[in-house]
Amino acid sequence: MSDFVRVTYGQTGKTQAPNAMGMRPMQARVYEARAAQFILLKAPPAAGKSRALMFVALDKLENQGVGKVIICVPETSIGASFRSTDLTSSGFFADWEVQPRWNLCLNGAEEGATARKVRAVREFMASPDRVLVCTHATFRFAFDEIAEEEGTAAFDDCLIAIDEFHHVSAGDDNRLGEILRRILSRGRAHVMAMTGSYFRGDTVPVLRPEDEALFRSITYSYYEQLDGYRFLKSLGISYSFYRDTYISAIPDVLDPGLKTIVHIPHRGGAEAYDVKQAEVGAILHVLGEVIGKEEETGFDLVRQPDGNILKVADLVDDGPERDRVKAALTREILGPDGKRDDEADRAKVDIIIALGMAMEGFDWIWCDHALTIGYRSSLTQIVQIIGRATRDAPGKRHAQFTNLVAEPGVETGVVTDAVNDMLKAVSGALLMEQVLQPNFRFYRREEGDTRPPVEMDGEGRVHIGIGGLMPPPTDRARQIVENDMHELVATACQRMDRATVADDVAPEVATQMVLTNIIERTYEDLTPDETEAIRQDLAARMNIAAIARRAAQEEAAQGEEDPAPPEEPGERDASNAMNLIRMVRRFINVRELDIDLIDSINPFREGFDVASKALDTPLLQQIQSAMVAQRIQMTEAEALVLWPRIKWFTAQEGRPPNPHAQDDLERRLAEAHAYIRTKKAERMRAAQTGA
């Protein structure tokens, strides 16, 4: 089983190092923005978003005239992250205190009728207490009822904090999004929105551009988070294939020695083959002999052939036992000193089996391996699942995400679904490769420029000079380049299809036509120059890793190394980012990095080629054959993009491209050439007839 993506990190320890007020670097960055009325925090799982909110909320309560804080989470299990917390012992001016009756996720008030939930929120609003924790759903119901009687003004001078903000949508049918727009429009409440994946599984944006412009945006990248860990060194992302039922492959992909979360397939999905309880039973049977349940926790006890006893938490069964299991999972085992007993807490449970749970906000720091069965069409969900395994913990050096999916048999002839499913897998891997990269900043490099062509600043941003790069012409374009590129990359990854990765697709179709289309659909009011500047930055961001890989492969093929520039301080502690920077620097030492080179690489195809190395030859051949069979029609936009390449081909070869050539791309150029000639003839006829 090969990794589609494997990333290594520097273990600098910076992520966990608190300042004099007890804040980690990300939290300190957020606290600097505490005076903003609307704050949008984009940070990965385990970055400490909940505590960042506590710091900001306490300042707003004490110094900014805010009277109440309402924290909204998508499900009750996340409510524990916001319970009372000692902050003064670490240097902050106040502790975070939530009266037990007002953490509705923990006191049982979230269970039962809607009327009771709304009544609890009403009672809080009338009380002198200052902090409430509830679910998104409870807040929606309470807002509707309270606003109907008192108007949106009832929430003036409140801080509304929305966790897992990607649940909000700019669509008219998203109730939470509509409520947020009403609050923003009135402009009297404060809002703090937090998410680890600021993009959705559909094509609807989280916020409308005019609403997002109101927010002070703070981004803390996956790279900053993981590179600053003390223990976790590497992350692998792989896909494995099975025949018949997925249970047959479980022994190959589920290592009982790794702390693992197993996400079984969605009901109704192609991979689900039985009722959910039977599938859980089959997984347990593969692990060993079920000998009973642990009385205190409800965990299943499974004896392996070597006599070792595994503890397995079943979150699939939604019967009365699940509450006991959930409570046991969230309960941390403490030592005599009141601090977490690492050894005992890690031994508490070995494997968790889940269905639609244990994803966003689920905190099990000991998880080494996230095993997901069945394709996930939502890239948001993939990022959330991977985040379960990327928390730093003593003794954990490697985290792994494995997607176990059905292998399309050659004999079945069912190839369309195979292609689509494969592209879903590759798009997920491509997205994670992009998400896990450092935070790049590109600038236009002029002749005689004395700045280093590649350098990293004190905040972990990598600055790279590119010849011919078009700088953002306006403040709006500059803000998009600085703040929105992760979202545009995610949108681009979701556009991966046969039209972007097949052998007959010219790179310019992907880097120019597809990326331009994405930007124009996301921001409808941009000028052509703004769009082109953003497109070039997006293409550079998606292709920089491919450029580095190609340079390294060419170097290896030649059996020699060009002298690299001297290492900068700290570079010898090689992380994936530093390796990438070194490869790019070495490349630039030999030749210029320019926008023409960037546009000559298809990032989607590069991702597909990397992923293809994990497939066996017959499966890869089948998928490639199916992609050829699913030929798309020529469009005028693609023909125009290909026209410069057609002219270059004709000049180089002394003939136009041949529609019967063996090379897929040459045949595609011939189709575009024929399309252009046909359209030109149609226009000439129309002009002659006066039509």
Rg on CA atoms, Å: 27 Å
CATH level 1 name of the largest domain: Alpha Beta
Number of strands: 18
Mean pLDDT: 83
CATH architecture of the largest domain: 3-Layer(aba) Sandwich
Can you give a write-up of this model?
With 691 residues, this protein is an alpha/beta fold. It has four domains: 219 residues, P-loop containing nucleotide triphosphate hydrolases (Rossmann fold, 3-Layer(aba) Sandwich); 177 residues, Rossmann fold (3-Layer(aba) Sandwich); 195 residues, no CATH class; 59 residues, no CATH class. It is 42% helix and 14% strand. It has 24 helices and 18 strands. The strands form three sheets. Strands 1-8-15-14-9-13-12-11-10 form a nine-stranded mixed sheet, with helices on both faces. A six-stranded parallel sheet has the order 4-3-5-6-2-7, with helices on both faces. Helix 12 links the parallel strand 14 and strand 15. Helix 1 runs parallel beside helix 2, helix 13 crosses helix 22 and helix 17 runs antiparallel to helix 23. It starts with a strand and ends with a helix. About 2% of the residues have low confidence.
